[in-house]
């Protein structure tokens, strides 16, 4: 998708475990970050087959993303947003599917 997350990098969140933070903290480090926004989105992350080699995946699940995140990301239901290590959004999947994320993985980490 090529859209930077810069405009929402400082957004506050409370994750499903009650921990609060700012998105810029969650995006730190050489890793991919999977934002699971909305009720039910976190449950779908368990079935995502992330490659064992390469950059790790960190998941941040937020059951109530709040109006700022909803508006910034166009969230209307359960949404998964994959953010590259350089801070750009690479895939967005809605309604509990991760089709676009799996297509991205097929391109960058094809099965042997």
TrEMBL record:
Cross-referenced Gene3D superfamilies: 3.40.30.120
Superkingdom of this protein's organism: Bacteria
Alphabetical list of Pfam families matching this protein: Rng_hyd_C (PF21274)
Protein name: Alkyl hydroperoxide reductase subunit C/ Thiol specific antioxidant domain-containing protein
């Amino acid at each position: 998708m090529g859209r930077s997350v810069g405009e929402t990098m400082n957004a506050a969140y409370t994750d499903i475990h009650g921990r609060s933070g700012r998105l810029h903290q969650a995006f730190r480090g050489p890793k991919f970050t999977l934002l699971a926004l909305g009720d039910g989105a976190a449950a779908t992350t368990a079935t995502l087959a992330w490659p064992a080699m390469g950059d790790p995946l960190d998941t941040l699940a937020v059951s109530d993303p709040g109006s700022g995140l909803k508006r910034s990301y166009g969230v209307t239901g359960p949404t998964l947003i994959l953010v590259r290590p350089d801070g750009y959004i690479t895939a967005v999947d809605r309604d509990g599917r991760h089709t676009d994320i799996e297509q991205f993985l097929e391109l960058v980490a094809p099965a042997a």
